[in-house]
Amino acid sequence: MKKKLFVVLTIIISSLGNAQNKDSIVKKPVTIPKNYSAQLDVVYTKVKEWEGKADLYLALNETKPTPVIINIHGGGWKTGSKDTQGGFSPFFKAGFAVANMEYRMSDYAKAPAAIEDTRCMLVYLIQNAKKLNIDPNKIIIMGGSAGGHLALMGGLLANDHRFDTNCSGIENIKVAAIIDKYGIMDVWDWTYGPDHKSSSPAYWLGENAKNETFIKSVSPISYVTKNSPPIFIVHGDADPTVPYHQSVDLYKKLQELGVKSEFFTVPGGLHGKFDKDKNAEINEAILKFIASLTPFK
Fold it and tell me: Which of 35, 82, 167, 215 has CA atoms 20 to 30 A from the CA of 76?
């Protein structure tokens, strides 16, 4: 009887803790221009009882399909929320729609669940491009930290459908570019390398935490080829969470293979949280990079 009571109390305390964590999320209000509409909590995929939701910000009264940016939050695959994301104004001004997505956290589902959800977001936009008036040839996928990892995986997989189990049946999945902000490109290195400083990857990997083959399959560096989409990288060279060399190594490989890429180093920059002026500079550089791409000329 005491054992059953303990279990019940543990569940209640855990539930209260989860509710408190959810309530403690600092939401960032998104100010949208008058010529935009907001479709909030749109369900882009379902996995059993879990619903993957995204906030869609769409340009109104456009005569032709608009480009779209998928935004993916960070948090080590275990924390974070789409509601903490903001800073979309420069992209609205440039005429982009935005899909601000959430994905399954590692408390709920281990790897590769978050990658599967990212791929489903891509598939959803491609399948509904006409209805949403977006251009499937102008999809940009962007994220920071774990979100940067997911952006890289979502875009680099292209037509490798190994993680498309929940959203199968779509060919010609591609992105026009990937915006990787201090993301993880080598999960093994971040888990066991000399500079690893986080428990997040091992927790996300779960029973596969020592499975090198699996870890390689969820590492973006494994999918970089000469045909990879253009990639813009942002990283602070004093990042205490995701080692700066992860981005250095990724950029080196991209350059060796001739993939169009740009590396924006933030001198003395930590793990994101750059000041307002630096973020403005980064956004300007990102938009300039995008404008240089063939689909946007």
Answer: 167
Angle in degrees, CA 234, 240, 244, rounded to 5: 40
pTM for the predicted model, two decimal places: 0.91
- What is the identity of the amino acid at 206? G
**Cβ atoms of 180 and 156 closer than 8 Å:** no
Q: Residue type for 71, please?
A: N
For 148, the enclosing helix (H) or strand (E) is helix 146-156
Q: Count of CB atoms within 10 A of residue 109's CB?
A: 19
Report the alpha-carbon angle 229-231-234, nearest 5: 165
Structural contact between residues 286 and 143, judged by C-beta atoms closer than 8 angstroms: no
Measure the CA–CA gap between 103 and 147, rounded to whole angstroms.
10
pLDDT tens figures, 232-273? 999 999 999 999 999 999 999 999 999 999 999 999 999 999
3-state secondary structure of 1: coil
Q: In Å, how far from its chain's centre is CA 119? A: 10
